Each structure stands twice: as C-alpha cells, then as structure tokens.
Amino acid sequence: ALKKLEDLEGAEKALSKAHSLSPQDPLTLLNYAIVLEERGDKERANEILSDLTDIAAVTTVDSQ
C-alpha cells in the first residue's frame, strides 16, 4: 500500500519489520526486494531474492 502511495521509504521500513517478524514469508520477501531495488539498493534486493529462491527450493523438495 505504501509503495502505491510512492512512499518507498515507509514501505521499506514496514517490509523490513515484516521480514524480521516472518523471515520466510514469500510475499514479504518479494515485495521487500522490489522496494529495495526501486530505492537503488540492488545488492540487498539480490540478497533477499536469493533468500526467496532458497525458500522456494526447500518448499519444492519438501512437497515431493
């Protein structure tokens, strides 16, 4: 919601808090990475996307 209001700083803070509370939530990770990238923090965005990829891989293996 904050991203749609163009409050990227607020969105980053909210998503950082959400990430600390639920570090494996895929939607939080995806949205956090998007906001970080839009704010110019591509390195951190890539780290978050890597976490998301790791979670997806584990989830896929667990469901087989």
Structure description:
The chain has 64 residues and is mainly α. The protein has one domain. Helix content is 75%, strand content 0%. It contains 3 helices and no strands. It has helices spanning 8-21, 26-38, 42-62. Helix 1 (8-21) packs antiparallel against helix 2 (26-38) and helix 2 runs antiparallel to helix 3. The longest helix is centred in the C-terminal third of the chain and has 21 residues, at 42-62. The radius of gyration is 12 Å and the shape is elongated.
Features:
mainly alpha; 3 helices; 64 residues; single chain; elongated
- What fraction of the residues are assigned to beta strands by DSSP? under 5%
What do the pLDDT scores average to? 89
Secondary structural class: mainly alpha
Strand count, sense and closure of the main sheet? none
Gap from first CA to last CA: 35 Å
State the shape.
elongated
SS elements, strand count? 0
The low-confidence parts are: none
H and E order: HHH
Percent in helix? over 70%
Calculate Rg over CA atoms.
12 Å
Number of helices: 3
Total domain units = 1
InterPro entries: TPR-like_helical_dom_sf
Brief synopsis:
The protein is mainly α and 64 residues long.
Topology, pairings included?
Blueprint: H1 8-21, H2 26-38, H3 42-62
InterPro entries: TPR-like_helical_dom_sf
Pfam family, one: TPR_19
